[in-house]
Amino acid sequence: MVGDRLDTDILGGNRAGMSTALILTGVDGVENALSASASQRPTYLLENLGQLYIPHPEIVVDGDGRHCCGGSTARVGDGVVIIEGDRQSMDSWRAACAAWWDATPEQETAVLPELQFVS
After folding, report:
1. Which end of the chain is more exposed for a tag (fewer CB within 10 A), N or C?
2. Diameter of the chain by CA atoms?
3. CA distance 24 to 54
């Protein structure tokens, strides 16, 4: 399921047992995705429809609990998502989402964590 709304497109796809892709050119952006409740979390984050044809980067969790995507990493400490990477990079946001979602797997309401970008 591909869509630009967490509360309809992504939620519906998730409830139907489909993989879901949030296209960030519409209603919801990266911070909405990061803060989404567990039922509205997409499988994939895409900047635009053209990225449907590009393999989605893998997210790997290292031995220190850091979620790595491309050249970016993220981890959660004391409720803060610490991101090593560029704020404009989709890989930074993908890593941040993976780290936060792993830390809050049962989150029932939207909660935007504190973010800390470090270089």
Report:
1. C
2. 40
3. 15
In the numeric block, the tokens 């049962």 are attached to 106
Please report the DSSP string for 11-77 in residue order: HHHHHTT---EEETTSS--HHHHHH--GGG--SEEESSGGGGGSPPPP-EE-TTS-EEETTEEEEEE
Residue whose pair of structure tokens reads 């939620």 in the numeric block: 11
CA–CA dist 97, 40 (Å, integer): 12
In the block, which residue shows the tokens 């993908």? 94
90's tokens? 């989709």
- Tokens representing residue 26 in the block: 């519409």
Whole-angstrom distance, CA of residue 87 vs CA of residue 14? 27
How do the pLDDT tens digits run along the chain, 119 residues long? 999 999 999 999 999 999 999 999 989 999 999 999 999 999 999 999 999 999 999 999 999 999 999 999 999 999 999 999 999 999 999 999 999 999 999 999 999 999 999 97
pTM of the model: 0.95
